[in-house]
Design goal:
This protein is mostly helical and 40 residues long. It has two helices and no strands. Helices cover 32% and strands 0% of the residues.
Amino acid sequence: MEEYQRLTKPKTRLTDFFKDSPLYDLDLDRSQDIAREVDL
């Protein structure tokens, strides 16, 4: 059981993973328009 936990445990924290990402400093713009209507 200990070996399984050791093997499945992430090597880095999720926040560190995103900080180390090559896309970390990418500045994405999002449209502020009202969302489109969708017929359900």
